[in-house]
Amino acid sequence: MGLELSIIMAYAFGLILLYIFGWILLIPLKWFVRLVFNSIVGGIMLFILNLIGGIWGIGLAINPLSAVVVGVLGIPGILLLFLFKYIL
Fold it and tell me: To 10 degrees, the CA torsion angle through 79, 66, 46, 28?
């Protein structure tokens, strides 16, 4: 009553599929965590900009979309939001 080769191969194949499936799901999770972190940093940057810009009467709305734009693009994202608000 030993393990047959077909059973061992089935277990090995299942483990390989589980590893590949986990690896495929892990990559988008890393991107999502990175996007959330950058969005939080973007929201903080907008808050600081509104504190400093309040002296001169300029500021940008802090909402999830603007936080994502600033988080992903950085300083060009702030300039883009200013362009949309004051020029367009």
Answer: -110
The rounded distance, in Å, linking the Cα atoms of 15 and 43 is 42
Pairwise CA distance, residues 47 & 73, whole Å: 16
Among candidates 51, 47, 43, which has minimal Cα distance to 72? 43
Per-state percent for the chain, helix, strand, coil, to nearest 5: 80, 0, 20
Which residue shows structure tokens 């277990």?
A: 11
- Compute the distance between CA of residue 70 and CA of residue 81 in angstroms, rounded to an integer: 8
pTM over 0.90: no
Give CA separation, 36 vs 6, 29, 68, in Å. Answer: 45, 11, 8
Type of residue at 68:
V
Mean pLDDT of the chain: 87
For residue 15, give both structure tokens.
């483990």
Residue 42, token pair as written in the block: 């973007």
